[in-house]
Amino acid sequence: MTQDLSPLTRIPRTGLPASALVVGDPARAEAVARLLDDAEEVSHHREYRLFTGSWRGLRVTVASHGVGGPGAILLFRELAEAGVRTIVRLGTAGSIRPGIADGDLVIAEGAVRDDGVTGQLLPPEYPALCAPEAVLALQRAAREAGAPHHRGIVWTRAAFQPGLIPVTAYGEAGVAAIEMELSALLVTASLRGLTAGGVLVADGANADDLVDEEATGGYDPHRQVVADGVRRGSAVALEALRLLAEDGR
Length: 249
What we know:
CATH topology: Rossmann fold
CATH superfamily: Nucleoside phosphorylase domain
Number of helices: 8
Largest sheet: 5 strands, mixed, barrel
CATH architecture: 3-Layer(aba) Sandwich
Shape: globular
CATH class: Alpha Beta
Number of domains: 1
Structural class: alpha/beta
Strand order of the largest sheet: 5-9-8-6-10
């Protein structure tokens, strides 16, 4: 019998585990899946690659959503339609707030909605907030893992390359880091009644790089310190999903 697949991402329409970890890179989804027991690749279409498996007894979905909010939001919606109720995003981010070292984790409390897509779904005044339970679960998991971590608001921005709009003001307001998809997840979660959160790995970019295009040309996220942070972040995100499931999320 042919499996019933969703129309856009080609993931199964039904039957997915209720807890999901999402990442941008399909290769990272595979790396996270290697941490699971009984991991199985379920589907792979374009940037959307999906695995299922178990983390410490909890059945989980691991899926990739590609780069940018417009494509990512397609996955988030179809995950919800397939039975997912809790989603944690694991990604990389440029640090903005001083004191965040390369490889450190940033546990998001909410996001600036500069994602290029959610403004077409809801007025810009509507907030993009992480579920408090997700923030606390991620913080607890990071502490128990001994992973260096910080909490704060992150800036989800559609443009990766620097432009003419100054970016330092958000740093002066205490924003911790900049990335490209979290606010799309958080708005989707609010509209769908999901529990959602995010943990990001500082990958070496900073506010000065974002202002100085020449400096950004030297940006290199493929260093060991970042890879080590991603491994820690993967385990932290999976453990947070388990803690949330224990709490009925």
